[in-house]
Specification:
The structure holds two protein chains of two kinds. By secondary structure, chain A is of the alpha+beta class. Chain A has three domains: 176 residues, no CATH class; 69 residues, Alpha-Beta Plaits; 129 residues, no CATH class. Helices cover 55% and strands 17% of the residues of chain A. Chain A has twelve helices and eleven strands. In chain A, the strands form three sheets. A five-stranded mixed beta sheet of chain A has the order 5-4-8-9-7. In chain A, strands 2-10-1-11 form a four-stranded antiparallel beta sheet, covered by helices on one side. In chain A, strands 3-6 form a two-stranded antiparallel sheet. In chain A, helix 2 runs parallel beside helix 11, helix 9 runs parallel beside helix 12 and helix 11 runs antiparallel to helix 12. About 2% of the residues of chain A have low confidence. Chain B is α/β, with parallel strands linked by helices. Chain B has one domain: Rossmann fold (3-Layer(aba) Sandwich), CATH 3.40.50.300. Chain B contains six helices and seven strands; from the N terminus they run E-H-E-E-H-E-H-H-H-E-H-E-E. Chain B has a five-stranded parallel beta sheet with strand order 4-5-6-1-7, with helices on both faces. In chain B, helix 6 links the parallel strand 5 and strand 6. The mean pLDDT of chain B is 93. The chains are: A alpha+beta, B alpha/beta. Chains A and B meet through helix 1 and helix 10 of A and helix 2 and helix 3 of B.
Chain lengths: 391, 184
């Protein structure tokens, strides 16, 4: 082997191999770094402590002008719900149940009173972000209002009408008179007490148990059809959610899928950067193959003589194969060292922005690096063997 | 041609002696007709079969020698013997001595005369097991004494292995008891 190498190392061009080395290193570095950065930044977008903590989305059907006029029910069928439940991003689905009877709420303060028609809705208790009080008198119903209502009153209505602003605490102390009127004029009088404000649920919410019981009592023949669904998702940054919603023509209540779009965008950017890296890797592979072909051509006489005295193509290919595989291995190790070095720097920056950020896994990067190394080396080995066999 | 025999192919230069050797060693295929080893057409041999044949059955002293000028005389022989592991260093050294090039053992081949290189090529060809030894004008640049010594050495090794020797010549050839002489 020593003698063979002594013979075949003639005409090895250091310049060409250095060129290949750095081109391959650059390509490998870009590929691995883009993957590692992607792995590290994804938790910042989607993790528990990430920017998007909201793991609930509220879905309704799109209301088109025509269907609204025609009065088509924009309700979800059981099949719709079943399908949604089977999606990979879904953890559980809750149904908004609306009151099937009339609700009239009134408030009297110091002799003056005001009242309004209203409605109730409920969702399963597990989806509510405010705790229902454990014990309330039988004639009182707890109500949760959207936080935005209070904001609307305080900064819109109260401001312009010179009315006092109300804190959450004050509102909770006011008891409303609620009158429910069901089928056949059946009425029920209750006290309503605001027990909290929800940022998640944009409706006048009552406990699910109360809703079921009152619907049964006041509207035993009406069938409640859900118009809105609340879905707890495993990862709101999952871009599959946005695709599904779009494909089904559903609508989302808020911007809870921004993270999904950001993730999608990040995926595209990472893919483009990775493609550039792969392109550079491919070009460097091409440089290497040209250098090797040139080397083989320059040493063709020696290789041919070795073959004629009984050396197999495999054996005379070995020095060049070891040379290229050795260089590829060196590139891999150096690229990984550089990736982890650069990663150390950008993680510091990320931690300043997201102090509780969990760093992503490095195994995918190492795996991809090794896979690239194996793939490139495999093609090198085959190409050299074939070239030498043609002599 | 059979094992154990000694053949001489005599012909003027340019009549195809070296071409015949190239066909027999599997280097060239531009011939018409059929060459068979043990009734097998050699044109169907695969690369791996040729490699095995060149290691174990066919040895060749090339007319153009096909040695490596970058290596020393000793290394040129070793590059073959390391592949076949057929001869001991002592045996090879003794051949260098018999052929009168012991002092050139570590000399770079490029600095040796063609006659000296012919002797290195012969030693290299003997460092392997063979059924046939093709010696293409092996003594073209040797004087009669050296030619006789090399002939004896070659024949002794061939007899020991029970192998055949095919020598080509343009007239100046080793004086050996040939079983058959082909004149082209």
């Amino acid at each position: 082997m020593k003698l063979i190498w002594k013979l075949l190392r003639r005409h090895v061009s250091i310049g060409q191999f250095v060129g290949f080395f750095f081109a391959n290193l650059l390509g490998m570095l870009i590929v691995l770094l883009s993957l590692q950065f992607y792995e590290d930044i994804i938790p910042a977008l989607s993790g528990e402590d990430g920017v998007m903590k909201n793991t609930y989305i509220i879905i309704s059907k799109h209301i088109a002008a025509i269907s609204g006029i025609k009065g088509e029910a924009q309700t979800f069928s059981d099949a719709d719900i079943c399908e949604l439940e089977t999606q990979s991003f879904t953890r559980r689905v809750g149904v908004f149940t609306a009151s099937q009877y009339q609700v009239y709420g009134s408030l009297s303060m110091g002799g003056t009173g005001m009242g309004t028609d209203m409605f109730f809705e409920s969702v399963p208790d597990a989806f509510v972000d405010v705790k229902w009080p454990a014990h309330l008198p039988a004639d009182e119903v707890p109500i949760i209002l959207p936080r935005s209502y209070l904001v609307l009153y305080n900064f819109g209505f109260a401001q312009t009408k010179n009315l006092p602003r109300l804190s959450e605490g004050v509102v909770s102390m006011i008891a409303m008179d609620i009158r429910l009127r069901g089928e056949g004029g059946v009425e029920r009088l209750l006290k309503g007490r605001v027990v909290g404000f929800s940022t998640r649920l944009n409706t006048v919410l009552v406990p699910e148990s109360f809703m079921l019981e009152s619907n049964k009592e006041l509207a035993p023949h009406a069938k409640a059809k859900p118009t809105r669904l609340i879905v707890e998702v495993a990862n709101p940054a999952d871009d599959a959610i946005a695709s599904y919603i779009q494909a089904k023509g559903y609508e989302l209540e808020d911007n809870s899928l921004d993270a999904g779009r950001a993730t999608y965008f990040l995926k595209i950017v990472a893919a483009i950067v990775m493609a550039v890296g792969l392109l550079i890797s491919a070009l460097s592979f091409y440089i290497l193959m040209l250098s090797i072909y040139l080397l083989v051509q320059k040493n063709a006489d020696k290789l041919q003589n070795l073959r004629l005295i009984g050396y197999s193509p495999a054996r005379v290919s070995l020095p060049y194969q070891l040379l290229t595989v050795g260089m590829n291995a060196l590139v891999l190790v150096l690229a990984l060292v550089l990736v982890f070095w650069i990663r150390g720097h950008y993680l510091e920056r990320l931690w300043q922005m997201f102090p509780t950020l969990q760093e992503g896994s490095t195994s995918m990067t190492i795996l991809l690096g090794v896979a690239l190394f194996v793939l490139v080396s495999f093609f090198n080995i085959i190409a050299i063997r074939r070239k030498i066999a043609t002599l | 041609m059979e094992r154990g025999k000694l053949y001489l192919i005599e012909a003027a230069s340019g009549t195809g002696k070296s071409s015949l050797c190239s066909y027999l060693i599997g280097y060239r295929r531009d011939y018409q007709g059929k060459i068979c080893f043990d009734n097998r057409d050699i044109s169907a041999f695969r690369t791996s079969e040729w490699t095995t044949l060149r290691q174990h059955s066919l040895s060749h002293v090339f007319q153009e020698l096909r040695l490596f000028p970058e290596l020393t005389a000793w290394e040129n022989v070793q590059i073959k013997n390391q592949l076949t592991r057929h001869k001991s260093d002592a045996e090879i050294t003794s051949w260098f001595e018999v052929l009168g090039i012991a002092d050139k053992r570590d000399a770079q081949l490029a600095l040796m005369s063609f006659g000296q290189q012919q002797r290195v090529a012969m030693i290299r060809a003997l460092c392997q097991p063979f059924d046939f030894l093709l010696a293409d004008e092996p003594v073209s640049h040797l004087d009669d004494d050296n030619s006789r010594v090399m002939g004896e050495l070659m024949l002794a090794e061939a007899r020991r292995q029970g192998a055949a020797v095919v020598v080509t010549s343009i007239g100046h050839h080793m004086d050996l008891p040939y079983d058959k002489v082909f004149k082209l």
